[in-house]
Amino acid sequence: MGIIKTALEIALEKTETVKSDKSSIEQFEAKQKGKKLANAYIAGESVNLADELKRAAFSEKESLKQGIFDVLVTQITLPAKKEDMGKVEKLGKGLSVVIKNKEFSAMYEQLTQILSQYLQEASHYEQMVQKQYAPKLRQKEEELSRRLQREVRIDPFQDPEFIAYFNQHMNALKGNYEPVVEQAREEAKRMFCE
Length: 194
Prior knowledge:
Elements: H1 7-15, H2 22-42, H3 49-55, H4 61-74, H5 85-98, H6 103-148, H7 160-193
Helix pairs in contact: 2-4, 4-5, 5-6, 6-7
């Protein structure tokens, strides 16, 4: 009759040959620390990324940089409003700490200008779409006013038909700029790896 083993004994036999690699654990932890630092930096906490990199042990610097880079580069997106440009500039400053390529600053400055242009165009598009939709909105208001026998005003952003029309136009605009943002991310990755 065979020996019946407990689940613990079976697990111990299977993991017996697995040894923890202290170096890879330290690298993983350094990368995680880099990600936390980057998130704190984005959140506006008083984090100086350059100082943190100087303080890091030599063996952890590359993993720490990788963690910081991974978080910051994914945050490069189209801004939703003018106030988001501060975050865009902050991301550029943070990335310049871990990307030591001289071309990065010029590339990122160009991206910042393009994103500002996008915001201006988006504002123009919004006004244009509202102006184009205004006759249809007035028609809906008049119809509702007749039905309810009192004056009715409709906020265009509460009208599902307007929202669909607005989103269609804004998504077309975003479609023109998303490739630029993606290209900037790819360029940043290329420069980081050099």
